[in-house]
Amino acid sequence: MANSVLARLGRPGPALAIIAVLALAAALAGVFTLPVLDRDEARFAQATAQMLQTGDIVEINFLDEPRHKKPAGIHWLQAAAVAITSSETAREIWAYRLPSVLGALLAAIAAYLAGACLIGRRAGFAAGALLAVTVLLGSEAGIAKTDAFLCATAAWAFFGIAGLRTASGRREARIFALSVWVAMGIGVLIKGPVTPMAAGLCVLALIALERRIDWAWPLAWWPAPLIGAGLTLPWLIAVQLATDGAFLQEAVGQDLGPKLVSGHESHDGPPGYHLALLPVLFLPAIAFLPAGLSAAVQRLRRGGAAAVGVKIALAFALPTWLVFELLPTKLPHYVLPAYPALAVIAGLGLARLKTAPAIWLQLGALLLIVGAAFAGPAVLVFLHLSAETPFGPVAAACIAVMLFAFAAAFAVITRRATLALALCVLTGLTWHAGARGVVAPAAGELFVSVRAAQAAMEVQTAAPGADIVSTFTEPSLVFTLGGRVILTDPQALISVPVDPALPRAYIIDESRWLSPELGPLSDEDRTARMDWLSSLTEAACASAAATGINYSRGDDTIVVAVYVTGCPETLEESEDEPQD
Known about the structure:
Number of strands: 7
Number of domains: 2
Number of helices: 24
Helix content: 55-70%
Mean pLDDT: 92
Distance between the termini: 98 Å
Largest sheet: 5 strands, mixed
Strand content: 5-15%
Radius of gyration: 27 Å
C-alpha cells in the first residue's frame, strides 16, 4: 500500500506540484517578517540597492568601497526581483530574498529529476521533498545571498551529469551536456568556481570509478562549452576592464586564496566539522541517509545497471564534501552544493526501507532525534534566553518539532515508508515555521540596527536633511537607512570638533567607544574620546538610544546612542536670546 502511494506521488505531475509547495512553504517562513540580517545578507542587499541606484550592473560596491569578492549574478537576480515586486527606496528586504527562494525551489525540483533518473520515481520524490524542507537549504532560501541559488546550479549540474551518463542516444547526451555547461556558467556568475568544481570532480570521480570515459565525450561538443563560457566571460571581461584588473586580483588573492590556506576571518574548523553538523543541517533527510548509504554499498557490490545511479550520486557528493572538510576555512553552508546528491541517497534509503538492515534504520532514527533536539529546543531556547523571546511560542515550537521527530523515528524503525516521509516533512516544516517564522522575528533584541535606525530617523526630524555619521558599523544599519550614512571609527570621528550649528546625526556605539578592539588605547586617547563625547551631548539638540544584542560580534548587550546637532529651532532660540 505504502509503495503504491509513493509510486502515485512519484509521477511527474503530482511530484513537482507537491515538491514546489513544500519548497515554497519552507523557504518563505520568515521571509516577510525577519528584518535584514548581518552581515552577508545586508552587504549583498545594499550592494544590489546601489546597483539599482546607479544603473551600473558591472561593478559591485558597498557604500564607497568596491566589493570585489563575488560575481554579479546574484545582484542581477535581486535587482530584477526588487524592480518587479518592490523598489530600491522601499528597502523591503523580502524582495531581495526572492532569488534565494527561487533557488531552493529549483534545487528541490532538480533533486527530484536526478533521483527519478538514477534510482526511480519514489526515490526521486523523496529526494525532492526532503531536500526542500532541510534546515540548511530552507534557511538559506530565506537569506538574500548566494548559497540557495548556488545549490540550484549545483543540483542542475548533477541532474545534467546523471542524464548524460544514462542517455540513450547522441542527441540526448548533447542536450544534457549542454545543460551541465549552462549550470556551470550560471554557477560561476553566482559564486565563482564552486559549481564547476563540484561538476568537474563528479565527472573525474565517475570516470575513475567506472574506468571508462566514452560517456563524457559529449561534454566536449563545441557549442556546449562555448555557451557556458558565453554566460560568464562578457561580464568577467567587463568587470576586469572597469576595475583595471582589480576584481580577479582581490576575489582570488584576498577572498578565495586565504580560505585555501588558513581559517579566513576566524572561520576555521577541524576536518569532520561538516559531518558533525550534518544531523542538524540535513534534518529531516538525515533519517534515511544511513539506510540509503547501506543500499548504495549493496548496489556497488552487485554492480551492473543498478550500481550506476549510486555511483553518480556518490561521485557528486563525496569529492565536494571532502574538499570542504579539508578546506581550513569552514562555514556551515559550504557543503550545501552536495546536498542534492545526498538527498538522492536518502531517497534511496526511503525506497528500500522495507529491506534495509534494522541497524541502519535505528541509526537514522537516532540521528533524526539528535538533529531535531539541536535544531529545535537547543536553538529555540537559545533565542528565548538571549533575546527574551516570549516563552509560549518557543515552547510550542519545541514540543511540535520533537513530537513529529519522535513519531517519524518510530515510523522509520517500523518501516512505514509513506508515514515516515510525511512525518519527516512535517518535522522540517514545523522547524522552519517555528524558528524562522515565529520565534526569530519576535527576538527584537537581536535586531539592534532596526532600533538604531528608527531612533536615528526619529531624532533626525529635529534637523531635517542632517547627514548621518555612525561608529556602529553593522551593514544592516546601512541598508535600513537607505545607504545614507557615513561609517567611521571613534578615532576618526573625534578628529573633527563638534559643531553645534552643523545639522548632523551621530550614531555612537557606546559599547565600543572605549574598546581596544580597534587598536590599543592610551590614557590620553580615552580622555580625548570622553571629552569629545561630552561635548557632543552638550551640543545635541535631540537624542535617543537603542539597546539589544549584536549577534555578529557575540556581544551580550550593547547600547547605541543617537545625537543630533544643528536643529533649526534650537539655533533660532539661541539667536533670540539677549546678549550680555
